[in-house]
Protein backbone atom coordinates (compact mmCIF):
# COMPACT_ATOMS: atom_id res chain seq x y z
CA UNK A 1 0.00 0.00 0.00
CA UNK A 2 2.84 2.38 1.05
CA UNK A 3 4.65 1.55 -2.13
CA UNK A 4 1.58 2.36 -4.27
CA UNK A 5 1.16 5.66 -2.45
CA UNK A 6 4.85 6.48 -3.04
CA UNK A 7 4.49 5.79 -6.76
CA UNK A 8 1.36 7.92 -6.90
CA UNK A 9 3.10 10.82 -5.13
CA UNK A 10 6.04 10.59 -7.51
CA UNK A 11 3.60 10.54 -10.42
CA UNK A 12 1.80 13.69 -9.18
CA UNK A 13 5.13 15.42 -8.60
CA UNK A 14 6.20 14.58 -12.13
CA UNK A 15 2.90 15.84 -13.47
CA UNK A 16 3.38 19.08 -11.56
CA UNK A 17 6.95 19.55 -12.79
CA UNK A 18 6.31 18.51 -16.39
CA UNK A 19 5.30 21.95 -17.73
CA UNK A 20 8.36 23.49 -16.02
CA UNK A 21 10.69 20.87 -17.52
CA UNK A 22 9.18 21.44 -20.99
CA UNK A 23 9.68 25.21 -20.63
CA UNK A 24 13.34 24.80 -19.61
CA UNK A 25 14.00 22.42 -22.52
CA UNK A 26 12.32 24.81 -24.96
CA UNK A 27 14.40 27.72 -23.68
CA UNK A 28 17.63 25.74 -24.02
CA UNK A 29 16.66 24.71 -27.54
CA UNK A 30 15.71 28.26 -28.62
CA UNK A 31 18.86 29.85 -27.23
CA UNK A 32 21.16 27.26 -28.73
CA UNK A 33 19.54 27.50 -32.17
CA UNK A 34 19.22 31.29 -32.36
CA UNK A 35 21.65 32.52 -29.75
CA UNK A 36 24.62 33.37 -31.94
CA UNK A 37 23.05 35.95 -34.17
CA UNK A 38 20.50 37.45 -31.79
CA UNK A 39 21.29 40.93 -30.46
CA UNK A 40 23.18 40.81 -27.14
CA UNK A 41 21.43 41.21 -23.79
CA UNK A 42 21.65 40.43 -20.09
CA UNK A 43 21.67 36.78 -19.01
CA UNK A 44 18.27 35.74 -17.78
CA UNK A 45 16.99 33.33 -15.17
CA UNK A 46 15.76 29.86 -16.12
CA UNK A 47 12.04 29.97 -16.99
CA UNK A 48 11.62 33.64 -15.99
CA UNK A 49 14.20 34.95 -18.44
CA UNK A 50 14.71 38.70 -17.86
CA UNK A 51 11.28 39.46 -16.34
CA UNK A 52 12.70 40.51 -12.97
CA UNK A 53 15.49 42.65 -14.48
CA UNK A 54 13.02 44.52 -16.67
CA UNK A 55 10.67 45.20 -13.74
CA UNK A 56 7.74 47.58 -13.92
CA UNK A 57 9.56 50.65 -15.30
CA UNK A 58 10.72 48.98 -18.50
CA UNK A 59 11.50 52.25 -20.34
CA UNK A 60 14.29 53.16 -17.89
CA UNK A 61 15.51 49.64 -17.02
CA UNK A 62 15.96 48.68 -20.69
CA UNK A 63 17.60 52.06 -21.44
CA UNK A 64 20.21 51.15 -18.80
CA UNK A 65 20.66 47.70 -20.34
CA UNK A 66 21.29 49.39 -23.72
CA UNK A 67 24.13 51.39 -22.10
CA UNK A 68 25.82 48.09 -21.22
CA UNK A 69 24.90 45.79 -24.13
CA UNK A 70 24.51 48.20 -27.04
CA UNK A 71 21.74 50.01 -28.95
CA UNK A 72 19.95 46.80 -30.00
CA UNK A 73 19.31 44.28 -27.23
CA UNK A 74 17.39 41.04 -26.93
CA UNK A 75 15.57 39.85 -23.82
CA UNK A 76 13.49 36.88 -22.81
CA UNK A 77 10.21 37.54 -21.01
CA UNK A 78 9.27 34.03 -19.95
CA UNK A 79 9.37 32.12 -23.23
CA UNK A 80 8.87 35.26 -25.36
CA UNK A 81 11.66 36.96 -27.30
CA UNK A 82 11.76 40.75 -27.12
CA UNK A 83 14.08 42.97 -29.18
CA UNK A 84 14.53 46.65 -28.28
CA UNK A 85 16.25 49.43 -30.22
CA UNK A 86 17.38 52.48 -28.25
CA UNK A 87 19.09 54.91 -30.64
CA UNK A 88 17.89 56.98 -33.60
CA UNK A 89 20.07 54.92 -35.94
CA UNK A 90 18.43 51.63 -34.86
CA UNK A 91 14.98 53.27 -34.96
CA UNK A 92 15.59 54.13 -38.63
CA UNK A 93 16.56 50.50 -39.33
CA UNK A 94 13.40 49.22 -37.63
CA UNK A 95 10.87 51.82 -38.79
CA UNK A 96 12.28 52.66 -42.23
CA UNK A 97 14.63 50.01 -43.65
CA UNK A 98 12.53 47.10 -42.21
CA UNK A 99 9.21 48.92 -41.96
CA UNK A 100 7.23 46.35 -43.94
CA UNK A 101 8.64 43.20 -42.40
CA UNK A 102 8.39 44.62 -38.85
CA UNK A 103 4.91 46.07 -39.31
CA UNK A 104 2.98 43.31 -37.48
CA UNK A 105 1.52 44.12 -34.08
CA UNK A 106 2.34 42.16 -30.94
CA UNK A 107 -1.07 41.58 -29.36
CA UNK A 108 -1.26 40.98 -25.59
CA UNK A 109 -3.80 38.75 -23.83
CA UNK A 110 -5.63 41.81 -22.46
CA UNK A 111 -6.61 42.71 -26.02
CA UNK A 112 -7.71 39.21 -26.91
CA UNK A 113 -10.39 39.08 -24.21
CA UNK A 114 -13.17 39.27 -26.78
CA UNK A 115 -11.76 36.51 -28.94
CA UNK A 116 -8.97 36.28 -31.46
CA UNK A 117 -10.59 38.21 -34.26
CA UNK A 118 -8.68 41.47 -33.69
CA UNK A 119 -7.59 41.26 -37.31
CA UNK A 120 -11.00 42.04 -38.61
CA UNK A 121 -12.04 45.07 -36.61
CA UNK A 122 -9.07 46.73 -34.96
CA UNK A 123 -7.04 49.38 -36.76
CA UNK A 124 -4.33 49.37 -34.15
CA UNK A 125 -3.83 45.59 -33.84
CA UNK A 126 -4.53 44.19 -37.27
CA UNK A 127 -1.63 43.46 -39.63
CA UNK A 128 -1.16 45.89 -42.53
CA UNK A 129 -3.66 44.19 -44.84
CA UNK A 130 -6.36 45.60 -47.12
CA UNK A 131 -8.78 45.95 -44.21
CA UNK A 132 -6.20 48.01 -42.28
CA UNK A 133 -5.64 50.26 -45.33
CA UNK A 134 -9.39 50.78 -45.63
CA UNK A 135 -9.79 51.62 -41.92
CA UNK A 136 -6.91 54.13 -42.07
CA UNK A 137 -8.29 55.73 -45.24
CA UNK A 138 -11.75 56.04 -43.65
CA UNK A 139 -10.28 57.69 -40.54
CA UNK A 140 -8.22 60.04 -42.67
CA UNK A 141 -11.24 61.07 -44.73
CA UNK A 142 -13.59 61.54 -41.77
CA UNK A 143 -11.24 62.83 -39.09
CA UNK A 144 -7.69 63.76 -40.04
CA UNK A 145 -7.65 65.23 -43.57
CA UNK A 146 -6.97 68.98 -43.78
CA UNK A 147 -10.61 69.53 -44.72
CA UNK A 148 -11.99 67.41 -41.86
CA UNK A 149 -9.67 69.09 -39.33
CA UNK A 150 -10.66 72.55 -40.53
CA UNK A 151 -14.36 71.76 -40.31
CA UNK A 152 -13.99 70.54 -36.71
CA UNK A 153 -11.83 73.43 -35.46
CA UNK A 154 -14.74 75.35 -33.93
CA UNK A 155 -15.88 72.20 -32.09
CA UNK A 156 -12.45 71.76 -30.44
CA UNK A 157 -12.39 75.46 -29.55
CA UNK A 158 -15.85 75.17 -27.99
CA UNK A 159 -14.80 72.23 -25.80
CA UNK A 160 -11.74 74.17 -24.63
CA UNK A 161 -13.93 77.23 -23.84
CA UNK A 162 -16.10 74.99 -21.66
CA UNK A 163 -12.97 73.87 -19.82
CA UNK A 164 -11.93 77.51 -19.25
CA UNK A 165 -15.42 78.35 -18.02
CA UNK A 166 -15.31 75.41 -15.60
CA UNK A 167 -11.89 76.44 -14.24
CA UNK A 168 -13.05 80.04 -13.88
CA UNK A 169 -15.61 78.83 -11.35
CA UNK A 170 -12.85 77.04 -9.44
CA UNK A 171 -10.44 79.92 -9.07
CA UNK A 172 -8.59 79.63 -5.75
CA UNK A 173 -9.51 75.94 -5.40
CA UNK A 174 -7.26 72.89 -5.85
CA UNK A 175 -7.98 71.02 -9.11
CA UNK A 176 -6.54 67.77 -10.43
CA UNK A 177 -5.57 68.90 -13.88
CA UNK A 178 -5.52 65.52 -15.58
CA UNK A 179 -9.20 64.92 -14.76
CA UNK A 180 -10.20 68.23 -16.33
CA UNK A 181 -8.09 67.65 -19.45
CA UNK A 182 -9.31 64.03 -19.69
CA UNK A 183 -12.97 65.10 -19.85
CA UNK A 184 -12.23 67.95 -22.29
CA UNK A 185 -10.37 65.75 -24.75
CA UNK A 186 -12.68 62.75 -24.34
CA UNK A 187 -15.65 64.99 -25.15
CA UNK A 188 -13.87 66.54 -28.15
CA UNK A 189 -13.35 63.04 -29.52
CA UNK A 190 -16.86 61.88 -28.70
CA UNK A 191 -18.25 64.95 -30.49
CA UNK A 192 -16.20 64.09 -33.55
CA UNK A 193 -17.67 60.60 -33.48
CA UNK A 194 -21.21 61.03 -32.12
CA UNK A 195 -21.84 64.80 -32.00
CA UNK A 196 -22.41 64.40 -28.26
CA UNK A 197 -20.59 64.78 -24.94
CA UNK A 198 -20.02 61.48 -23.15
CA UNK A 199 -18.61 62.91 -19.89
CA UNK A 200 -19.30 66.02 -17.85
CA UNK A 201 -16.86 68.36 -16.11
CA UNK A 202 -19.50 69.12 -13.48
CA UNK A 203 -20.86 65.68 -12.71
CA UNK A 204 -18.64 62.60 -12.39
CA UNK A 205 -21.60 60.25 -12.71
CA UNK A 206 -22.44 61.35 -16.26
CA UNK A 207 -21.08 58.75 -18.71
CA UNK A 208 -19.90 56.47 -15.91
CA UNK A 209 -21.37 53.48 -17.81
CA UNK A 210 -18.54 54.10 -20.30
CA UNK A 211 -15.84 55.64 -18.13
CA UNK A 212 -15.86 53.01 -15.37
CA UNK A 213 -15.36 49.86 -17.46
CA UNK A 214 -12.98 51.78 -19.76
CA UNK A 215 -10.65 52.82 -16.90
CA UNK A 216 -10.91 49.40 -15.23
CA UNK A 217 -9.95 47.73 -18.51
CA UNK A 218 -6.87 49.94 -18.77
CA UNK A 219 -5.98 49.03 -15.18
CA UNK A 220 -6.46 45.33 -15.90
CA UNK A 221 -4.21 45.63 -18.96
CA UNK A 222 -1.41 46.63 -16.59
CA UNK A 223 -1.56 43.46 -14.52
CA UNK A 224 1.19 41.08 -15.72
CA UNK A 225 -0.54 38.16 -17.40
CA UNK A 226 1.17 34.75 -17.23
CA UNK A 227 -0.33 34.00 -20.67
CA UNK A 228 1.77 36.80 -22.22
CA UNK A 229 5.00 35.31 -20.89
CA UNK A 230 4.06 31.68 -21.63
CA UNK A 231 1.52 31.60 -24.49
CA UNK A 232 1.17 27.82 -24.07
CA UNK A 233 -0.51 28.53 -20.69
CA UNK A 234 -2.72 31.37 -21.99
CA UNK A 235 -5.83 29.25 -22.57
CA UNK A 236 -5.92 28.23 -18.87
CA UNK A 237 -6.33 31.90 -17.82
CA UNK A 238 -4.62 31.02 -14.53
CA UNK A 239 -5.19 34.45 -12.96
CA UNK A 240 -8.76 34.82 -14.24
CA UNK A 241 -7.75 38.11 -15.93
CA UNK A 242 -9.19 37.23 -19.33
CA UNK A 243 -12.55 36.39 -17.77
CA UNK A 244 -12.65 39.68 -15.84
CA UNK A 245 -11.53 41.61 -18.95
CA UNK A 246 -14.22 40.00 -21.13
CA UNK A 247 -16.89 41.05 -18.61
CA UNK A 248 -15.66 44.66 -18.55
CA UNK A 249 -15.32 44.78 -22.34
CA UNK A 250 -18.93 43.56 -22.64
CA UNK A 251 -20.08 46.35 -20.29
CA UNK A 252 -18.16 49.00 -22.24
CA UNK A 253 -19.29 47.77 -25.64
CA UNK A 254 -22.92 47.47 -24.52
CA UNK A 255 -22.86 51.10 -23.35
CA UNK A 256 -21.33 52.26 -26.64
CA UNK A 257 -23.64 50.03 -28.67
CA UNK A 258 -26.69 51.59 -27.03
CA UNK A 259 -25.57 54.99 -28.35
CA UNK A 260 -24.98 53.63 -31.85
CA UNK A 261 -28.42 52.01 -31.81
CA UNK A 262 -30.04 55.40 -31.08
CA UNK A 263 -28.48 56.67 -34.31
CA UNK A 264 -29.55 53.60 -36.23
CA UNK A 265 -33.06 54.29 -34.92
CA UNK A 266 -32.98 57.71 -36.54
CA UNK A 267 -31.91 59.97 -33.66
CA UNK A 268 -30.89 63.40 -34.99
CA UNK A 269 -28.22 65.26 -33.04
CA UNK A 270 -26.75 67.66 -35.56
CA UNK A 271 -27.93 69.95 -38.33
CA UNK A 272 -29.67 67.93 -41.07
CA UNK A 273 -27.12 68.74 -43.79
CA UNK A 274 -24.15 67.83 -41.58
CA UNK A 275 -22.54 64.42 -41.10
CA UNK A 276 -20.45 63.21 -38.19
CA UNK A 277 -17.99 60.30 -38.20
CA UNK A 278 -20.63 57.86 -36.95
CA UNK A 279 -22.86 58.72 -39.93
CA UNK A 280 -19.91 58.08 -42.24
CA UNK A 281 -19.15 54.70 -40.65
CA UNK A 282 -22.78 53.59 -40.70
CA UNK A 283 -23.15 54.67 -44.32
CA UNK A 284 -20.10 52.53 -45.15
CA UNK A 285 -21.53 49.43 -43.48
CA UNK A 286 -19.28 49.34 -40.38
CA UNK A 287 -20.44 46.98 -37.62
CA UNK A 288 -20.96 48.11 -33.99
CA UNK A 289 -17.83 46.17 -33.02
CA UNK A 290 -15.68 47.99 -35.57
CA UNK A 291 -17.04 51.38 -34.55
CA UNK A 292 -16.48 50.72 -30.84
CA UNK A 293 -12.97 49.54 -31.45
CA UNK A 294 -12.07 52.71 -33.36
CA UNK A 295 -13.46 54.92 -30.62
CA UNK A 296 -11.89 53.19 -27.61
CA UNK A 297 -8.37 53.03 -29.09
CA UNK A 298 -8.17 56.66 -30.05
CA UNK A 299 -8.92 57.90 -26.55
CA UNK A 300 -6.09 56.03 -24.83
CA UNK A 301 -3.13 57.96 -26.19
CA UNK A 302 -4.56 61.42 -26.16
CA UNK A 303 -5.72 61.34 -22.57
CA UNK A 304 -2.23 60.69 -21.22
CA UNK A 305 -0.76 64.03 -22.30
CA UNK A 306 0.64 65.82 -19.55
CA UNK A 307 -14.12 83.36 -23.77
CA UNK A 308 -13.03 85.17 -26.47
CA UNK A 309 -11.36 81.94 -26.82
CA UNK A 310 -7.98 81.21 -28.29
CA UNK A 311 -8.43 79.71 -31.72
CA UNK A 312 -6.29 77.19 -33.55
CA UNK A 313 -4.95 79.74 -36.01
CA UNK A 314 -3.47 81.72 -33.09
CA UNK A 315 -1.63 78.57 -32.05
CA UNK A 316 0.37 78.35 -35.29
CA UNK A 317 1.66 81.86 -34.57
CA UNK A 318 3.17 80.72 -31.27
CA UNK A 319 6.53 79.06 -32.00
CA UNK A 320 7.49 78.87 -28.33
CA UNK A 321 4.33 76.89 -27.59
CA UNK A 322 5.19 74.46 -30.39
CA UNK A 323 8.73 74.16 -28.95
CA UNK A 324 7.21 73.51 -25.52
CA UNK A 325 5.10 70.64 -26.91
CA UNK A 326 8.15 69.11 -28.64
CA UNK A 327 10.34 69.38 -25.56
CA UNK A 328 7.63 67.80 -23.38
CA UNK A 329 7.25 64.88 -25.80
CA UNK A 330 11.04 64.49 -26.09
CA UNK A 331 11.42 63.95 -22.35
CA UNK A 332 8.03 62.42 -21.56
CA UNK A 333 6.65 60.59 -24.62
CA UNK A 334 3.18 59.17 -23.78
CA UNK A 335 4.05 55.91 -25.61
CA UNK A 336 7.73 55.35 -24.68
CA UNK A 337 7.97 52.11 -26.71
CA UNK A 338 5.53 53.23 -29.48
CA UNK A 339 2.97 50.42 -29.95
CA UNK A 340 4.70 47.00 -29.88
CA UNK A 341 5.50 45.56 -33.30
CA UNK A 342 6.02 41.95 -34.40
CA UNK A 343 8.37 40.51 -37.03
CA UNK A 344 6.31 39.04 -39.87
CA UNK A 345 9.43 37.32 -41.21
CA UNK A 346 12.98 36.78 -40.01
CA UNK A 347 15.11 39.80 -40.89
CA UNK A 348 18.43 41.52 -40.12
CA UNK A 349 18.70 44.68 -38.03
CA UNK A 350 22.19 46.15 -37.43
CA UNK A 351 23.59 42.81 -38.65
CA UNK A 352 21.74 40.85 -35.98
CA UNK A 353 18.93 38.40 -36.61
CA UNK A 354 15.39 39.29 -35.61
CA UNK A 355 13.47 35.99 -35.83
CA UNK A 356 9.94 35.77 -37.20
CA UNK A 357 7.37 36.31 -34.44
CA UNK A 358 9.71 38.30 -32.14
CA UNK A 359 8.24 41.33 -30.43
CA UNK A 360 10.10 44.50 -31.52
CA UNK A 361 10.11 47.78 -29.59
CA UNK A 362 11.74 51.16 -30.12
CA UNK A 363 12.59 52.90 -26.85
CA UNK A 364 11.89 56.53 -27.81
CA UNK A 365 12.21 57.57 -24.16
CA UNK A 366 15.90 56.54 -24.34
CA UNK A 367 16.32 58.18 -27.77
CA UNK A 368 14.96 61.47 -26.38
CA UNK A 369 17.60 61.38 -23.64
CA UNK A 370 20.56 60.26 -25.77
CA UNK A 371 23.49 62.54 -24.92
CA UNK A 372 25.13 61.93 -28.31
CA UNK A 373 22.16 63.73 -29.94
CA UNK A 374 20.85 66.19 -27.37
CA UNK A 375 22.88 68.75 -25.47
CA UNK A 376 22.15 68.52 -21.73
CA UNK A 377 19.48 65.92 -22.49
CA UNK A 378 17.96 65.86 -19.01
CA UNK A 379 17.38 69.63 -18.88
CA UNK A 380 13.91 70.80 -19.92
CA UNK A 381 14.77 73.51 -22.44
CA UNK A 382 12.20 74.30 -25.19
CA UNK A 383 14.65 76.85 -26.68
CA UNK A 384 16.55 73.97 -28.29
CA UNK A 385 13.69 73.64 -30.82
CA UNK A 386 13.36 77.34 -31.67
CA UNK A 387 16.11 77.34 -34.24
CA UNK A 388 15.75 73.78 -35.48
CA UNK A 389 13.57 72.20 -38.14
CA UNK A 390 13.06 69.00 -36.19
CA UNK A 391 9.41 68.00 -36.26
CA UNK A 392 7.61 64.90 -35.07
CA UNK A 393 6.13 63.73 -38.36
CA UNK A 394 8.27 60.60 -38.48
CA UNK A 395 11.09 61.95 -40.67
CA UNK A 396 13.45 62.66 -37.84
CA UNK A 397 14.35 59.54 -35.89
CA UNK A 398 15.61 61.51 -32.88
CA UNK A 399 12.09 62.66 -32.02
CA UNK A 400 9.36 60.08 -32.56
CA UNK A 401 6.44 60.56 -30.13
CA UNK A 402 3.99 59.46 -32.87
CA UNK A 403 6.16 56.71 -34.38
CA UNK A 404 7.18 56.53 -38.04
CA UNK A 405 6.67 54.46 -41.15
CA UNK A 406 3.44 52.88 -42.33
CA UNK A 407 2.05 52.51 -38.79
CA UNK A 408 2.71 56.11 -37.75
CA UNK A 409 -0.10 57.49 -35.58
CA UNK A 410 -2.95 58.50 -37.89
CA UNK A 411 -4.22 60.88 -35.18
CA UNK A 412 -1.05 63.01 -35.37
CA UNK A 413 -2.63 65.91 -37.33
CA UNK A 414 -5.41 66.11 -34.76
CA UNK A 415 -3.18 65.74 -31.71
CA UNK A 416 -0.78 68.48 -32.82
CA UNK A 417 -3.70 70.89 -32.94
CA UNK A 418 -5.59 69.76 -29.87
CA UNK A 419 -2.76 69.45 -27.34
CA UNK A 420 -1.23 72.95 -27.88
CA UNK A 421 -4.74 74.48 -27.92
CA UNK A 422 -5.52 73.05 -24.47
CA UNK A 423 -2.09 74.03 -23.12
CA UNK A 424 -2.24 77.57 -24.56
CA UNK A 425 -5.69 78.14 -23.06
CA UNK A 426 -4.61 76.94 -19.62
CA UNK A 427 -1.61 79.32 -19.72
CA UNK A 428 -3.41 82.28 -21.27
CA UNK A 429 -6.45 82.44 -19.01
CA UNK A 430 -5.01 81.56 -15.61
CA UNK A 431 -2.12 82.13 -13.26
CA UNK A 432 -1.29 78.84 -11.65
CA UNK A 433 0.21 78.00 -8.27
CA UNK A 434 0.80 74.84 -6.30
CA UNK A 435 -1.41 74.05 -3.28
CA UNK A 436 -0.19 75.89 -0.14
CA UNK A 437 2.09 77.98 -2.39
CA UNK A 438 4.67 75.22 -2.53
CA UNK A 439 7.86 76.00 -4.43
CA UNK A 440 7.43 74.88 -8.12
CA UNK A 441 11.14 74.02 -8.24
CA UNK A 442 10.41 71.23 -5.73
CA UNK A 443 7.61 69.74 -7.83
CA UNK A 444 8.03 65.98 -8.27
CA UNK A 445 8.18 65.48 -12.06
CA UNK A 446 9.03 61.78 -11.90
CA UNK A 447 6.99 59.50 -14.13
CA UNK A 448 5.59 56.02 -14.06
CA UNK A 449 4.90 53.57 -16.88
CA UNK A 450 1.30 52.40 -16.94
CA UNK A 451 -0.39 51.72 -20.31
CA UNK A 452 1.16 55.06 -21.18
CA UNK A 453 3.89 57.06 -19.44
CA UNK A 454 2.44 59.52 -16.97
CA UNK A 455 3.35 61.69 -13.99
CA UNK A 456 3.80 59.57 -10.88
CA UNK A 457 2.15 62.14 -8.62
CA UNK A 458 -1.00 63.69 -10.13
CA UNK A 459 -0.59 67.41 -10.83
CA UNK A 460 -2.66 69.36 -8.30
CA UNK A 461 -2.88 73.07 -9.12
CA UNK A 462 -4.74 76.18 -8.07
CA UNK A 463 -6.01 78.44 -10.91
CA UNK A 464 -6.16 82.20 -10.20
C1 LIG B 1 -0.59 63.16 -28.09
C2 LIG B 1 -1.39 62.29 -28.65
C3 LIG B 1 -0.97 61.01 -29.31
C4 LIG B 1 0.23 60.35 -29.28
C5 LIG B 1 1.51 60.73 -28.56
C6 LIG B 1 0.08 59.16 -30.10
C7 LIG B 1 1.08 58.24 -30.34
C8 LIG B 1 0.95 57.10 -31.11
C9 LIG B 1 2.00 56.13 -31.35
C10 LIG B 1 3.41 56.24 -30.81
C11 LIG B 1 1.48 55.15 -32.15
C12 LIG B 1 2.25 53.92 -32.67
C13 LIG B 1 3.04 54.26 -33.92
C14 LIG B 1 3.92 53.12 -34.41
O1 LIG B 1 3.62 51.95 -34.17
O2 LIG B 1 4.94 53.41 -35.08
C15 LIG B 1 0.10 55.47 -32.39
C16 LIG B 1 -0.76 54.72 -33.15
C17 LIG B 1 -2.07 54.99 -33.29
N1 LIG B 1 -2.75 56.14 -32.87
FE1 LIG B 1 -1.95 57.68 -31.85
N2 LIG B 1 -1.20 59.13 -30.62
C18 LIG B 1 -1.88 60.25 -30.17
C19 LIG B 1 -3.17 60.61 -30.48
C20 LIG B 1 -4.03 59.86 -31.25
C21 LIG B 1 -5.37 60.26 -31.63
C22 LIG B 1 -6.01 61.60 -31.30
C23 LIG B 1 -5.90 59.23 -32.34
C24 LIG B 1 -7.27 59.10 -32.96
C25 LIG B 1 -8.28 59.90 -32.77
C26 LIG B 1 -4.89 58.18 -32.42
C27 LIG B 1 -5.06 56.96 -33.04
C28 LIG B 1 -4.07 56.03 -33.25
C29 LIG B 1 -4.25 54.76 -33.94
C30 LIG B 1 -5.57 54.26 -34.52
C31 LIG B 1 -3.01 54.13 -33.99
C32 LIG B 1 -2.69 52.79 -34.64
C33 LIG B 1 -2.24 52.98 -36.06
C34 LIG B 1 -1.83 51.69 -36.74
O3 LIG B 1 -1.46 50.74 -36.05
O4 LIG B 1 -1.90 51.62 -37.97
N3 LIG B 1 -3.78 58.61 -31.75
N4 LIG B 1 -0.21 56.67 -31.76
From TrEMBL:
Could you list the residue ranges that cross the membrane?
6-25
- Please provide, alphabetically and separated by semicolons, the GO molecular function terms listed in this UniProt record: heme binding; iron ion binding; monooxygenase activity; oxidoreductase activity, acting on paired donors, with incorporation or reduction of molecular oxygen
Names of the cofactor(s)? heme
Q: Which family does it belong to?
A: Belongs to the cytochrome P450 family.
Gene3D superfamilies referenced in this protein's UniProt entry, alphabetically: Cytochrome P450 (1.10.630.10)
Which Pfam families does the record match to this protein? p450
UniProt-annotated binding residues for heme: 409
Q: Which UniProt keywords apply?
A: Heme, Iron, Membrane, Metal-binding, Monooxygenase, Oxidoreductase, Transmembrane, Transmembrane helix
Supply the name of the protein: Cytochrome P450
- Give the InterPro entries listed for this entry: Cyt_P450, Cyt_P450_CS, Cyt_P450_E_grp-I, Cyt_P450_sf
Q: Which PROSITE patterns match?
A: CYTOCHROME_P450
Amino acid sequence: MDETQGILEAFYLLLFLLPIIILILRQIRTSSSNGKSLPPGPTGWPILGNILQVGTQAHSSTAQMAQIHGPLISLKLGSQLLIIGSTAEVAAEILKANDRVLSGRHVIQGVLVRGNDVNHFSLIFTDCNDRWKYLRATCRAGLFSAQALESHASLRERKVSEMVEFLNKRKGMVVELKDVVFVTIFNSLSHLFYSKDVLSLEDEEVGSDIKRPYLKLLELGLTPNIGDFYPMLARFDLQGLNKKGAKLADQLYDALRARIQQRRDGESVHEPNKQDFLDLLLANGFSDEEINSLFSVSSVLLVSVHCDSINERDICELPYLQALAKETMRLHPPAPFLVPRRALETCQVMNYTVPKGAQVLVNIWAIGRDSTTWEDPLIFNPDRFLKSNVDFKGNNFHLLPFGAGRRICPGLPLAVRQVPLVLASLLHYFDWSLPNNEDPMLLDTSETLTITLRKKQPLLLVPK
